[in-house]
Amino acid sequence: MKRKNTEPYVRLTRPLVRDSGELRPASWEEALERAAAGFRRTLDTKGPEAFGMFSCARATNEMNYVAQKFTRAVIGTNNVDSCNRTCHAPSVAGLARVFDSGGGTSSYQEIEDADVIVVWGGNPREAHPIFFQHVLKAVHRGAKLFVIDPRRTSTASWAHRRLQLYVGTDIPLAHAIAREIIHSGLANTAFIERATEGFAEFAASVEPWTLEAAEETTGVPAELIRELAHTYARADRGQLSWTLGITEHHNGTDNVLSLINLALLAGHVGRYGAGLNPLRGQNNVQGGGDMGAIPDRMPGFQNILDADVRAKFDAAWGSNIPPHKGLNLTQMLDAMERGDLTCVYIIGENPVQSEADCEHTIKRLSNVEHLVVQDIFLTKTAQLADVVLPASAAWCESDGTFTNSERRVQRVRKALEPPEGARDDIQLLCELARRLGHDWNYQGGEDVWNELRTLSPMHAGMSYARLEELGGIQWPCYREDELEPTFLHGRLWEEDPAKRGRPAPFTVIAHSPPVDLLTEDFPIRLTTGRRLDSYNTGVQSGGFPSPLRRGETLDLCPADAVRLGVVEDEVVRISSRRGEIEAPVRIDEGLRPGLAFMTFHFPDEIDVNVITIEATCPVAGTAEYKAAAIRVEKLPVTV
Amino acid sequence: MTIVGLGLPRRLVEFTVDGEAVRVPEGSTILDACAAAGKDIPTLCFGDTLEPANACRVCMVEVEGSRTLVPSCSRKAEPGMVVRTETDRTRLSRKVVLELLGSATDLSTTPDVAGWMAECGAEPERFGPPAPASDDRDDRRPGEHEIPDGLTAATVRQPVKVDNELYVRDYGKCIQCYKCVDACGEQWQNTFAITMAGRGFDARISTEFANPLPDSACVYCGNCVEVCPTGALSFKREHDKREAGTWDESRQTATTTICTFCGVGCSLTLHVQDNEIVKVTSPHESSVTHGNLCIKGRFGWQHVQNR
């Protein structure tokens, strides 16, 4: 099928306001006043908890710092979050629960120096290509690569061993690996005794997951599970890396915790070259969270429930931060539906196209009384707004920093003037704060950063000058004259219990299969992911002419295509319990019968989120994008 | 705990370059030592992120006791070695190499080569006027080659290959330095979309079965373009601007920032002319990218310019 190209998005250059149902151009003064008046009205009539902020995982640390400060100090609520909720919130929740810190524990150089690398539920060859170059350096050096994924991806084609498990059976597989490590006497008992707790309960809990039981449930041959268990546990330096194949499940946090259990069992954390690494999907998911643009943490990942932490920020900001967690993005959407959250400020996010079951999201956002969207394009979300504020592009039209997946804070520099009529994100936030009675005066990104450094100990040593000089610095960095190791949690190996600190707990986890059950009506499992040349919601990557781009397809294995009587390029109807879409078929021999694959790259043409399921992880709020049940039907021939 | 990265402990090696004693860490090449001593040795196929390919032979130096000249880019310094970089022999060698390259290849977009030619008195014209451009060299059958007429200089000139919107291949400028092959292959990208085809004077860089790029294994990371020293590979935007006469490096700024297409944090250097991004490269010293990018980092910037 010839692909119908949609028009690329064009930059916004004039503010828009909604009058009698229609968006119309407005002056900056009118738009800003309209936005501020709506915030004031909400505060006067409903109070601060009726406000929600969607901050932006693609904007700078500085923007995220100011956005959460606006939410907490100007409005007076902790309802601030970003798209981390749709991707790696379970990684942060899991890592923070065990180690008190939600970052990946290693550096890319340590990946190159590892002996065994396990990539679990990820396809970095396509989704994180430069990370995968570091993996391939290790492979060429002799490291063993295991890839665990329901699909045989281009990443898996580089693996020494591929474990093609059934979607949603990660916990049984992890448990069987754990049991095999324990039964073979390969558990790192010295580390377990010294640095962990809860081992006995954990060991008892994995006991039913024999290799045979796991083979039955996961579809992975027992011999492969055994080989992975032995190779990982025997390695000097073992790395475990994952992406959304682990997190985008209704029990994503449990999945992450089951992987952490393995690292604790083998002692593969807290040492050079050994670690646990979630690969982030958006450029500044890590930084947005580090800056406090999440409902339960202040900048520097400091706990919002800690009165001393709040007192420090209140003293610096003249604020009165509520002593409870705010709503996360998923909870904010629920609150919109209930009518409790009536005023929303969205910066650079596009939930209408990125949330699972998107028809439901549109309904909820339409329920909001005052919606302000700040973006560089009139996205599908911006089209619902009452006020649209044209912003500049963070990565090339502003100065600041991003934090990458190895916790490296790096300088972002202004290379271009934004289009005439667009304004800097931070200026816009400050202007709105001023209209609500808070006179903030930041001369630029560096001013914001220096304020953050006084309040976040883990960023204190990172001046802009030093970031320039060293090509970025990994957090934590407490002092301007020191650097910490490139890996986290070295404390766990300290002999002195005082220095060692809180033991890392094993977690007892039960297997819970995907929520969307396969039945006769919906017999095929749909899983989702990324392709190399495109990007979620298509707003950015739709702007360049990629020779690799073939548009959205429903990928099926050859046997399923034969069974359904469909051929490549034939358009079929795909239905789930939420809705239905149509897409052309593509044959992928990397899939097994009963498994189909799609992306979220072209929602303007084929909106896959119409059929995904909104079942969310109760801890992290992330939806089960990876496991929908679908039916595929041939379309009647039309003449 | 404070950790200072010391790297591997290295002994120093002492040797002589052009009569001067130099001390360099064990494992350094002669080229490294010369660079540290402030000596300029011409290089074409040397890539700072790649293993030396030893292909172009312009960096040859004399090492006492060695029968042949040695490539300074790959020969490791040894204690007591006596190296001469500017002798009649090295100058003659460089002159002939540059003449042969210059007579067969379009070096008009190769930085610095005109200066080196002038320095060593290279006269590519002495092989005669260039032969007329041939058809696409990829169309030749194996073993087929043109018999030189003895009056004109054989060249690798051929039409520019424009088969996609992202980068173009002008193999009339290719000196077969292998940098693109190494960057596409095992050293970085591991895609193996391009390698050497043909023999002798017919040798050329090509795709499998000489397919157009969109039908090849190419994933458009542009890492081959990043390392190409002659402009044989260039970005389409740059190529078009050069054709139109509007490419002007003197009006360009280069600003390094960070890519937004995933969480890896790749460094992008945006080359901007008249407030328009005209090219994206990546700093070779970045510990994240080592000069490499993927298709989105290299080419996915147009959306900010849809004004």
TrEMBL record, chain A:
CDD domains: MopB_CT_Fdh-Nap-like. Residues 525-628 form the Molybdopterin dinucleotide-binding domain. It is an enzyme of class 1 (oxidoreductase). Pfam families: Molybdopterin, Molydop_binding. The keyword Lipoprotein does not apply. GO terms for molecular function: iron-sulfur cluster binding; metal ion binding; molybdopterin cofactor binding; NADH dehydrogenase activity. Residues 11-434 form the Molybdopterin oxidoreductase domain. Gene3D superfamilies: 2.40.40.20, 3.40.50.740, Dimethylsulfoxide Reductase, domain 2. One of its GO terms (cellular component) is membrane. The keyword Acetylation does not apply. Signal peptide: none annotated. Keywords: Iron, Iron-sulfur, Metal-binding, Oxidoreductase. One of its GO terms (biological process) is respiratory electron transport chain. Its EC number is 1.2.1.2. PANTHER family: NADH-QUINONE OXIDOREDUCTASE SUBUNIT G, RESPIRATORY NITRATE REDUCTASE. This is Formate dehydrogenase subunit alpha.
UniProtKB/TrEMBL annotation, chain B:
Residues 164-184, 210-238 form the 4Fe-4S ferredoxin-type domain. Keywords: 4Fe-4S, Iron, Iron-sulfur, Metal-binding, Repeat. InterPro entries: 2Fe-2S_ferredoxin-like_sf (IPR036010), 2Fe-2S_ferredoxin-type (IPR001041), 4Fe4S_Fe-S-bd (IPR017896), 4Fe4S_Fe_S_CS (IPR017900), Mopterin_OxRdtase_4Fe-4S_dom (IPR006963), MopterinOxRdtase_cofactor_BS (IPR027467), NADH_UbQ_OxRdtase_ferredoxin (IPR054351), PSI_iron-sulfur_center (IPR050157). The keyword 4Fe-4S applies. Coiled coil: none annotated. PROSITE patterns: 2FE2S_FER_2 (PS51085), 4FE4S_FER_1 (PS00198), 4FE4S_FER_2 (PS51379), 4FE4S_MOW_BIS_MGD (PS51669), MOLYBDOPTERIN_PROK_1 (PS00551). Residues 11-89 form the 2Fe-2S ferredoxin-type domain. GO terms for molecular function: 4 iron, 4 sulfur cluster binding; metal ion binding; oxidoreductase activity. Transmembrane segments: none annotated. Residues 252-307 form the 4Fe-4S Mo/W bis-MGD-type domain. It holds the Pfam family Fer2_4. Residues 122-149 are annotated as: Disordered. Residues 134-148 have a biased composition (Basic and acidic residues). It comes from the Bacteria. This is Uncharacterized protein. It comes from Amycolatopsis japonica. The lineage of its organism: Bacteria, Bacillati, Actinomycetota, Actinomycetes, Pseudonocardiales.
